[in-house]
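Researcher: I've been going back and forth with a colleague about how CinA C-terminal domain-containing protein might be arranged in three dimensions. Neither of us has a model we trust, so I'd like an independent prediction. The organism is Rhodoferax lithotrophicus, in case that matters for your notes. Sequence below.
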Amino acid sequence: MPHDELLKNELPAHNSCALAANFLLKNKWLLATAESCTGGLIAAACTDLAGSSTWFERGFVSYSNAAKTELLGVDAQLIQQYGAVSEPVARAMAQGALTHSHAQVSLAVTGVAGPSGGTAEKPVGTVWFGWALGDRIITDMQHFSGDRAAVRQATVQHALVRLVELLREKETS
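Model: Here is an independent structure prediction for CinA C-terminal domain-containing protein. You can compare it with whatever you and your colleague have in mind.
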């Protein structure tokens, strides 16, 4: 099912988790998450499912720049050069989650949930995503509208729906 179709159906996060879990279990892969703006909401959505310990390996909440460096090995100069909300940092977070876990698949999010912190270049609602599937890292940027809760929930939803899509692609390649 295409990504847009999944979003139109507005699958609750736990349904996306269940779909991801099926792909992960079938392939004996583990998932790790690296979250900044969502503060662990993706890990919470995953671990809401009973039996998630068989496919969810760990979650990193790397809210501060120091945590991104210390927990995930993101180069501090990369953060300084591009900002924490950027494609290179999302990519490094996804890679770092794999490097610092036993997982074969990871997802990372870094964004501006608001209500403050936005700039003209990176307004509130800007979120960068990174997904690592083995050696392949895919990134994506989205702008979500609404208040802090809405931005964070949309981030969780997009991260998981896109994860399902990427797992489906990987399985058929």
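Researcher: What would you highlight for our discussion?
Model: I'd start with this: Helices lie at 3-8, 13-27, 41-47, 65-72, 76-82, 87-99, 148-172. After that, consider the following. The chain has a mean pLDDT of 92.
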